[in-house]
Write a structure and sequence with these properties.
Layout (H helix, E strand, L loop, with lengths): L15 H4 L6 E5 L2 E5 L6 E3 L2 H9 L6 E5 L7 H7 L4 E3 L5 H5 L5 E4 L13 H6 L4 E3 L1 H4 L17 H14 L3 H19 L8 E7 L5 E2 L5 H9 L2 E2 L13 H7 L3 E5 L11 H10 L7 H4 L3 E4 L1 H4 L5 H14 L5
Parallel strand pairs: 3-4, 3-6, 4-5, 6-7, 8-10, 8-11, 11-12
Antiparallel strand pairs: 1-2, 8-9
Helix pairs in contact: 7-8, 8-14, 9-14
């Protein structure tokens, strides 16, 4: 049975005082949908860790009534803010559990979560009077067909900055949004200042040992590769995370392996430790030069997905390339 949403506020409002807030209603054009709120949302469900981390970074922890679909522990600077935020599920929550929080706004990082086959479609939430927001980094991707989609347009950090700014606008915290964008830009500049990793080949492994998900050219790993000036050995595919066999990996023999260190439990070889154990024991991979030289860069799943933590991925990758002596 679905939980009724009589207390949700209809179009994103949460009471007469909120509807009277100056500067509202506010609308953003989001992935082909006009998302309108009548007042700053007060009861938000964030269906993916990436959008949750943006909301926490904008100082909106007290507005979040539920989160879900997690891959990693939070960074130290967000952990305390998240302590009182209810987690509806570690993976994808049910529609009923989301509705039980009586949300007045729903956010998500992926069409796979907020769309057909996910928790619910945006139309389903709209029919119940609940506005929704989807990360532009995912709706600019071609999500038709099987797999994780294809990027016909190369992702840049500007798309992630757009997400920060649009959420900040809807929640009436624009100044916080600009400060966050400025901070992220500054961190990227500092991490890559004077860095030159031209000629260094990289491979990004997200999960699964039998049929590994390896990064194509143009998602978050592409942002990192471009930032450090290296080369992704699978930059000849625009698929987001194609499944590629290990024999092909051995043929391309990357200089450095960037490895997802995940805490979820939905694929094989989720943690970095399991991935490295596999790499060093498998007859095809143990002779890769990156494995022989233990050139591993361990990143969170959030860094490997389009998110504000992609900046942390650039920082860690740049630091490791310098440590390996592969970049200036």
């Amino acid at each position: 049975m679905l939980v009724p949403l009589a207390a949700c506020g209809g179009t994103g409002g949460t009471g007469d005082d909120d509807r009277a807030a100056p500067g509202y209603p506010r609308t953003v054009d989001n992935c082909g949908v006009r998302t309108t709120v009548e007042a700053p949302p007060q009861k938000v469900v964030s269906l993916n860790q990436g959008t949750t981390e943006i909301l926490l970074s904008l100082g909106l922890a007290d507005r979040i009534v539920g989160t879900a679909t997690w891959t990693d522990p939070l960074p130290d600077d967000l952990a305390a803010a998240n302590e009182g935020v209810p987690r509806l599920a570690d993976n994808m929550p049910s529609f009923e559990s989301v509705l039980s929080t009586e949300p007045d706004f729903v956010t998500a990082s992926f069409v796979a979560t907020l769309g057909k086959g996910g928790v619910a479609t945006r139309d389903q939430f709209s029919e119940l009077g609940v506005p929704s927001y989807l990360s532009p980094s995912d709706c600019t991707k071609n999500n038709e067909g099987a797999g994780d989609g294809r990027r016909d347009t190369t992702l840049t950090m500007d798309t992630i900055y757009t997400e920060v700014r649009e959420l900040a606008t809807l929640f009436d915290v624009e100044e916080r949004g600009e400060r966050l964008v400025s901070e992220l830009r500054g961190r990227l500049e500092r991490a890559t200042d004077g860095l030159d990793a031209s000629g260094v080949t990289l491979l990004y492994w997200f999960a699964n040992s039998e049929a590994p998900y390896l990064a194509g050219c143009c998602g978050a790993p592409g942002v990192m590769t471009k930032a450090v000036g290296g080369e992704n050995v699978f930059d000849d595919t625009r698929d987001e995370w194609p499944q590629i066999n290990w024999e092909t990996v051995a043929e391309r023999d990357p200089d450095v392996l960037v490895i997802g260190d995940l805490t979820r439990k939905s694929q094989t070889a989720e943690t970095a430790a399991k991935k490295i154990e596999f790499l060093e024991s498998h007859p095809v991979t143990r002779n890769l030069k990156a494995v022989r030289d233990k050139r591993y860069v361990l990143l969170s799943g959030q860094a490997l997905n389009p998110s504000i933590r992609t900046v942390a991925g650039v920082e860690e990758l740049a630091a490791k390339l310098r440590e390996f002596g592969l970049a200036g």
